[in-house]
Input
Amino acid sequence: GGKRLDSGFWMFSICFIVVNEFCERFSYYGMKALLTLYFLTYLKWDKDLSTAVYHAFSGLCYFTPILGAFIADSWLGKYKTIIYLSIVYVIGHVVKSVGAIPTVGSTELHIALSMSGLILIALGTGGIKPCVAAFGGDQFDEEHTTERQKFFSIFYMSINAGSFLSTIITPILRGDVKCFGGDCYALAFGVPAALMVVALVVFIAGSSLYKRTPPQGNVLWEVCNCIGFALKNRWNKSKHDPPKKHWLDWAEEKYSMRLIQEIKMVLRVLVLYIPLPMFWALFDQQSFYRMLNALLILVFVPIFDLIIYPLVRLCGLKITPLRKMAMGMVFAALAFGAATLVEVNVVKTVVNPAPAGKCLLQVVNLAKDDVSLKAPGTDLFLQSIKYLEDPPGYETVPLSNGELNLEVTVVNGGNFSATQKVEEKKAYSVIIYPDATGITYTLVEDHITKNEEGNPLLRFLNTQPEALNVTVGDNNFYMSSGYNVTHNKTVQRGEYTDVTCISNSGKTSKLNLGLLDFGACYTVILTEEAGKIVPHKIEDVKANNVHIAYQIPQYILITAGEVMFSITGLEFSYSQAPANMKSVLQAGWLLTVAFGNVIVLIVAEGAGLEQWIEFLLFACLLLGVCIIFSVMAHFYTYVDPEEMEKLYLENSVREEDDSDFKKKNNEIELNKTGKSTKM
Output
C-alpha cells in the first residue's frame, strides 16, 4: 500500500504528480490543437465530417473516465491504473504520429491508423483523468484540507499551463518545420507523444514517495447489487413492515451499514451533479481560443486563492464549496449576457439571407437622372434614387415562379419593365445606366457573407468605354469596357490611398479607396471626372464596428466562473467521496462535462437559432439551473470522511463489545439454568 507521508512532506510527492499532469495535458491539447486541420488538409475530409469526428473524439475522452475509475477503485488501484493506461496513451500517440507520415501506406491506412490512435488516446486520457486528481488528493490526510485545496489549485494550473504552451508550440512545429514535402504533422504529433513518455517516466520516478490506497475489490458491482437489493426489498415490502428513513435502508438485512452509508454519500453528490452539465454546455460554447483561456486561468487562480477568497472571509462571509460553484455558474451566465450584447451589435453589420420564395435587392443608379424602381405587389423603393447615391440597403423582394419583376421610371422621362430569372434566398444589385436608346439595366449577384478570416471583400464596376486593370495589394482586377463588374476578391484590411489603375490605352490613374475595413464587402464604381478615373465606394455589407476589446468582459467573467466552479468541483468530488470510491466520484464529475457537450449538440445544432438568441437562451437556462442547484445545495449536508471513519471504528468496537457481553451473559445463564438465552 505504500508508506504514509508526514504532512510536512506532501509537496515532494505532489511535485511528481503535477509535472506528470502538465506533460499529459501538453500532450493532449497539443495533439488536439491540430486535429481538425489535420482532417481537412491531410486526410482531405470535408468540414462536416471533420467537425463530427472531432466532437466524437472529445466526447469519448469524457465518457471513458468511468472505465478508468472502475479499474482503479475495484481492481488495480490508482497508481497501477495510471501507469498501465498511460502506456496505452503513449501507444495511441505513436500510432497517430505514424499515420501522419505520407510515405506509410495508402490513404486508407492513414485513416485507419489515425482513428485507432485516437481511440487509444481517448482510452488513455479518459482512463487516467479521474485517477490522477484523486491520487493527488490521496497524498493528504483528511485533517489537511487547506493543503489539499492548494494542491487542486496547483493541479488545475498545471493543466492550463500545459494547454497554453502546447497550443503555441505544436502549430509552429506543423507549419514552420517542413517534412515529406509539406507541413510536418508527423513531428507535430510526435512531440506530444514524447511529452506523454516524459509524463509516464516522471510519475514512476516518484513512486517511492507516494501514499497509495489499495483497491477495495469490485466496489461498483457491490454498490449496484446493494442498490438493486434495496429497491427489490422496498418493492416487495409488506404493509405491516415498519417504514424506513431512507430507501437504501431496505438493504440492511444483507449489506453492512457502512456500505449503505457510503452509497448514500455518493448518491447525494451525484444527485447534486444533475444540474451541472449546463455550466459545461455554456463553457464549451465560448468563442475565444483555448490558449487565451489557459493564460487567464494561470493569472486568475493565484488571484482568487491569495486575494479574493481571503478578502471575502475577512468580510465575515462563509465560503463553502457549493457556494463557490453556484457563484461560478452566475459568472458564466453573466459572461453569456455580455456575449449577447456584443453579438447584438455585431448582427447589425450582417446581411441576413432572404427567406424562401424571395430575394434581396439593392439599386445602384448610374443614369444621369434620378430614377425610381417598383417591384409589383410591394411598397419598396418608393423614393427616387439619385445618381451615384449610396444604396439605402437591401430590401426583400418577392419572386413569381422564380422570376423578379421590376418597373423602372426615370424622373425626367422614360421607363421600362423587366423580368429576370433569379434564385431565391440570394442577393442582387440592379445597376441602372444609360445606353444609346435611353436607359437600361444589368443584374449582378452579390456576396453578402462576411469573410471567415475577417478580411474585406472587394469588386469593381467599370463605367468606361475601355477596359481597366486595377491592382490592390496582391490582387489584380481586370474589367472589360461598358459597365462590367468583377468578381469579389479578398484583400487585406488597410488604407488604400495610392492604388494603380491602368486603362487599355495605357493611361494610368491613382485611386484613393480609403479604408477597406474588417468584415465589409465593397463595390467600387469607376467613373471619369475631369479626365481622371475616380472611384466611388459602396459598402454592400457594413464593416465590423464592434471593437475586439468589447469581448474582454466576457473572457474575464467566464474565466472567473471556471476558477470558482471547476477547481472547487474537483476538490469537492474528492472530499465528499468514501475512500474506496474516490475515482468513481471524480469520473461522475467528468461525466457532467460529457453531458454538457450533449446539451450543446441538442440545443445549438438542433434549434438552429440566431447566435445572439442562442447566447441569451444559454444564459437564462444556466441562471435557472443555478437557482435549482442553490436550493439543492442548501439542503446538502457536508460529510467529513475522517469523522465517518472514526464513527465506523467506534461502532465496530461497540458491536464487538456488545457481542462479547451477550456471549458471556449467555454462558452465565447456561451455567445457572442449563438453557441458552436468545441473542
Remarks:
- The CA atoms of residues 34 and 171 lie 7 Å apart.
- The mean pLDDT is 85.
- The radius of gyration is 35 Å.
- Residues 353-446 form a domain with the Immunoglobulin-like fold (CATH 2.60.40).
